[in-house]
C-alpha cells in the first residue's frame, strides 16, 4: 500500500479545549444537527428543570418560543448555585455552563436522588451549540445573570438586583452554522411536554409559541399521573375495564406502572427511566413482561380457567390489547449511548418483576371481573395465534409445492442485492401494466394489487395469512409478519406504495400503512417504506416539452414561468390525472419511477404514541372520534375528487 507522506508528531495531535469538542462533533452529544437535534437542545434544558421537580423543589416550568426562534425556559426550582466552585475557581453557575460533565448529578452525595440528565452535559452542550446563551438565576434573595457566545463566557455571573423566590431562566439562540434549520415544531415540543407532565404527577408545564401574530399555547398538569397518561392513550379505544390498574412502590428504585386493556389487537407498552423515554425498552420492560405472563398464567391455573390439559398462555397472548406505561427512577442508570433509548441496569429486572408479581396478583384477586374479562381476551388471542400458526404453515406448504414462493403477479427485478432493489406496490392491473413496461428491470419490481384490502386494525393475524390481498405483499417483502418479522430477510431496500392521487388511492395507502405499522413495524422504523408521488397535472402544447405538476402550487408556478416565456394559459392543454392508469409507460417512468426525476416521500415514525393514536382513530371501531376528526380537518383537504 502506498504511504501517505505527512508529518506525524506532537504538533499533529489536536487537543480540543473546553467546549470546542462539542462544536467539532455535535452529533456525539445531541444525536444529530437535524431538526431532531435542534429539539433535543430544548429537552436538555427542560430535563434539568424536571430533575428539580423530581427532587421535590420545582412545581412549574414555562417554555416559550420567541420571535427569531429564541428559546426561553424558566422554572421555580432552587436556582443554580452561584458561589465560587472550589475546583474551577469560577462561579458554580458558570462551571455548569462551560465545563463538560459538571453538574449536580454525579456520585452518592449529588444534588439529585435521580436524574434524567445522567451525563451532566446538557447545559454546557446547549451553550456550546448556541450563538448566544443568557442565564438568569433567582437565589438567596438575589437576582444574578451571566451570558455566553458560542460557549465562551462574555459576561461573568454578577448580581444585578434583589429578587424574591428561587428559580432559573435560560434563553438561547441555537447556532445556525451548526443546525440545518432553526425552525422549531410547536407540535413536537407540545407532545414532549405533555408526556413529561404525565410522568411527573402535579408538575405544571406550559409552552407558548410567540412567533406568529396569534400565539399558540398549551398548559399541562396531571394530578392523576400515569393513570391520566393511559386514559389519554386509550381515549379512542373500547376499554375492557373502566379504570386503569395502578401499581406504585417507592424504595431504592421507585416503580410506577399503569395498565389498561382494550378490545384492540395491538400491544402498546411505553417505558421511561427518570422521565426519559426508553423507546428500545430494556431491563424494566423485560421485568414487566415476565411478571405479566407469570401472574396471569398463575391466576388462570389457580382459578381453573386454564385446565390441566391446556398449554400456558404466551406473553404475546397476554399483551394483546394492552396499553401500559412503565416508569422507573434509577439513581445511576446505565443507558446505551447519550440518546438514552435502552436501559441496561440488570438489578431493575428483578425489582420490577417482584413488585408487579405481588401488586398485580393482589389486584386480580380483588377484582375478579376485570381478571375474567382480560383472560377471556388472552385465551381468544391464544386460539387466534394457534390458528395463525396453522394458516402460516399451510401457506408455506402451499408455496413449497409451487415452483416459486413469490406471488404470481409480482414482476421481480434481476438484481438480488436488497439494498439496491425496490418494489412498487401498485394499485390496479392497468397501472401495474404501465409500471411493468416503464420500469428499470434491473432493480425495480412491480406488485399490482386490486380492490380494497383487509383493514388489519380490526383483524387478528390468523385472518391475514392467506388473505388474497395481503399475502402477496408478505411473500414479496419476504421477512414474515408480527413476532416472526425479520428485517434482515427483506428482499427490497425500498418498499414503495404507488396509488392514485384520489380518495380511493388515499384509502389504499392508509390500509397498507396500517398493515406495515401493525405487522411490519421495523420496516418503517428502518426507513424502508416510501410513498410515490405521481403528478396531478400535465401542461402540454405542440412543439413544447410536457410540464408535469405535482401540486396546485406547482401548477400556478408553471403557468407563471410559461407566461414569462410568452406562452399564455389559453394556449396550453391541461390534463388532470385521476389515475396512474392514464399514464403510458414512458410518462410513468419520467414522472414517478425514474430515480433522477421522481419524488419519494419516506414514511417515518418519530412518535409511536401519535402513530398509534392516528391508526386507531382512522381505522378502528370507534366511530364518534373519527367523525369528530373528519369534521375538524375537512377544511384542510385538497384535490378531493367528488
Walk me through this protein's architecture:
The protein has 642 residues and is an alpha+beta fold. The chain folds into three domains: 20-220, 2-Layer Sandwich (Heat Shock Protein 90), CATH 3.30.565.10; 226-385, Ribosomal Protein S5, domain 2, CATH 3.30.230; 403-534 and 602-636, Rossmann fold (3-Layer(aba) Sandwich), CATH 3.40.50.670. It has 19 helices and 21 strands. The protein has helices at 20-24, 27-30, 35-54, 92-98, 122-128, 186-199, 226-233, 283-302, 315-318, 346-366, 368-401, 429-438, 471-477, 503-519, 521-525, 552-564, 585-593, 608-619, 623-633; strands at 60-66, 70-75, 130-139, 142-149, 152-162, 167-174, 204-209, 216-220, 245-249, 255-261, 268-273, 276-277, 322-328, 422-427, 444-449, 494-498, 529-532, 537-541, 544-549, 573-576, 600-602. The protein has an eight-stranded mixed beta sheet with strand order 5-4-3-6-2-1-7-8. A five-stranded mixed beta sheet has the order 9-10-13-11-12, with helices on both faces. Strands 15-14-16-17-21 form a five-stranded mixed beta sheet, sandwiched between helices. A hairpin with a 2-residue loop joins β4 (142-149) and β5 (152-162). It is globular. The model is unreliable at 6-16, 105-111 and 116-120 (pLDDT under 50).
Please describe the structure with a list of short key phrases separated by commas or semicolons:
642 residues, alpha+beta, Heat Shock Protein 90, Ribosomal Protein S5, domain 2, Rossmann fold, 3 domains, 8-stranded mixed sheet, 5-stranded mixed sheet, 19 helices
Amino acid at each position: 500500500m502506498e504511504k501517505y507522506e505527512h508529518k506525524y508528531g506532537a504538533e499533529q495531535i489536536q487537543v480540543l479545549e473546553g467546549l470546542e469538542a462539542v462544536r467539532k462533533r455535535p452529533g456525539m452529544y445531541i444525536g444529530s444537527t437535524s431538526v431532531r437535534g435542534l429539539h433535543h437542545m430544548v429537552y436538555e434544558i427542560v430535563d434539568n428543570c424536571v430533575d428539580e421537580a423530581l427532587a421535590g423543589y420545582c412545581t412549574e416550568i414555562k417554555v416559550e418560543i420567541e420571535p427569531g426562534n429564541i428559546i426561553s425556559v424558566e422554572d421555580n426550582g432552587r436556582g443554580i448555585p452561584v458561589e465560587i466552585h472550589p475546583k474551577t475557581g469560577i462561579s458554580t453557575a458558570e462551571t455548569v455552563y462551560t465545563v463538560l460533565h459538571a453538574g449536580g448529578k454525579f456520585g452518592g452525595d449529588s444534588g439529585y436522588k435521580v436524574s434524567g440528565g445522567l451525563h451532566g452535559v446538557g447545559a454546557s452542550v446547549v451553550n456550546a451549540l448556541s450563538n448566544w446563551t443568557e442565564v438568569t438565576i433567582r437565589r438567596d434573595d438575589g437576582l444574578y445573570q451571566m451570558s455566553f457566545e458560542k460557549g465562551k463566557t462574555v459576561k461573568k455571573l454578577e448580581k444585578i438586583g434583589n429578587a424574591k423566590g428561587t428559580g432559573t431562566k435560560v434563553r438561547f439562540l441555537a447556532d445556525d452554522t451548526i443546525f440545518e434549520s432553526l425552525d422549531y415544531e410547536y407540535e413536537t415540543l407540545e407532545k414532549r411536554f405533555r408526556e413529561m407532565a404525565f410522568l411527573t404527577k402535579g408538575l405544571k408545564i406550559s409552552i407558548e409559541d410567540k412567533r406568529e401574530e396569534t400565539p399558540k399555547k398549551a398548559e399541562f398538569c396531571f394530578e392523576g399521573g400515569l393513570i391520566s397518561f393511559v386514559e389519554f392513550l386509550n381515549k379512542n379505544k373500547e376499554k375492557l375495564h373502566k379504570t386503569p390498574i395502578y401499581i406504585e412502590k417507592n424504595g431504592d428504585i421507585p416503580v410506577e406502572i399503569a395498565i389498561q386493556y382494550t378490545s384492540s389487537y395491538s400491544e402498546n407498552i411505553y417505558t421511561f427511566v427518570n422521565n426519559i423515554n426508553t423507546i428500545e425498552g430494556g431491563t424494566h420492560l423485560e421485568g414487566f413482561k415476565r411478571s405479566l405472563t407469570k401472574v396471569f398464567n398463575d391466576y388462570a391455573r389457580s382459578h381453573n380457567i386454564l385446565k390441566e390439559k391446556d398449554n400456558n398462555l404466551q406473553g404475546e397472548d397476554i399483551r394483546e390489547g394492552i396499553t401500559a406505561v412503565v416508569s422507573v427512577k434509577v439513581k445511576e442508570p446505565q443507558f446505551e449511548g447519550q440518546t438514552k433509548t435502552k436501559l441496561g441496569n440488570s438489578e431493575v429486572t428483578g425489582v420490577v418483576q417482584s413488585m408487579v408479581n405481588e401488586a398485580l396478583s393482589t389486584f386480580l384477586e380483588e377484582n375478579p371481573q376485570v381478571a375474567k374479562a382480560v383472560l377471556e381476551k388472552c385465551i381468544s388471542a391464544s386460539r387466534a395465534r394457534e390458528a395463525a400458526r396453522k394458516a402460516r404453515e399451510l401457506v408455506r406448504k402451499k408455496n413449497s409445492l409451487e415452483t416459486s414462493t413469490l406471488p404470481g403477479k409480482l414482476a421481480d427485478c434481476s438484481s438480488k442485492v436488497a439494498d439496491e432493489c425496490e418494489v412498487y406496490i401498485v394499485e390496479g392491473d392497468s397501472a401495474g401494466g404501465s409500471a411493468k413496461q416503464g420500469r428499470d428491470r434491473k432493480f425495480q419490481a412491480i406488485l399490482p394489487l386490486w380492490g380494497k384490502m383487509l383493514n388489519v386494525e380490526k383483524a387478528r393475524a390468523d385472518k391475514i395469512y392467506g388473505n388474497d390481498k395481503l399475502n402477496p405483499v408478505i411473500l414479496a417483502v419476504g421477512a414474515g409478519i408480527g413476532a416472526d418479522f425479520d428485517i434482515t430477510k427483506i428482499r427490497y431496500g425500498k418498499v414503495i406504495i404507488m396509488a392514485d392521487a384520489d380518495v380511493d388511492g388515499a384509502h389504499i395507502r392508509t390500509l397498507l400503512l396500517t398493515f406495515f405499522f401493525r405487522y411490519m413495524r421495523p420496516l418503517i422504523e428502518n426507513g424502508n417504506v416510501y410513498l410515490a408521488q405521481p403528478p396531478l397535472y400535465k401542461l402540454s402544447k405542440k412543439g413544447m416539452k410536457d410540464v408535469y405538476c405535482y401540486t396546485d402550487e406547482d401548477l400556478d408556478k408553471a403557468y407563471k414561468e410559461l407566461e414569462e416565456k410568452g406562452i399564455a394559459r389559453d394556449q396550453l392543454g391541461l390534463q388532470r390525472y385521476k389515475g396512474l392508469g392514464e399514464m403510458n409507460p414512458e410518462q410513468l417512468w419520467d414522472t414517478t419511477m425514474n430515480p433522477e426525476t421522481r419524488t419519494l416521500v419516506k414514511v417515518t415514525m418519530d412518535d409511536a404514541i401519535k402513530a398509534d393514536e392516528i391508526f386507531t382513530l382512522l381505522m378502528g371501531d370507534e366511530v364518534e372520534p373519527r367523525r369528530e376528526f373528519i369534521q375538524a380537518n375537512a377544511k384542510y383537504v385538497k384535490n378531493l375528487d367528488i
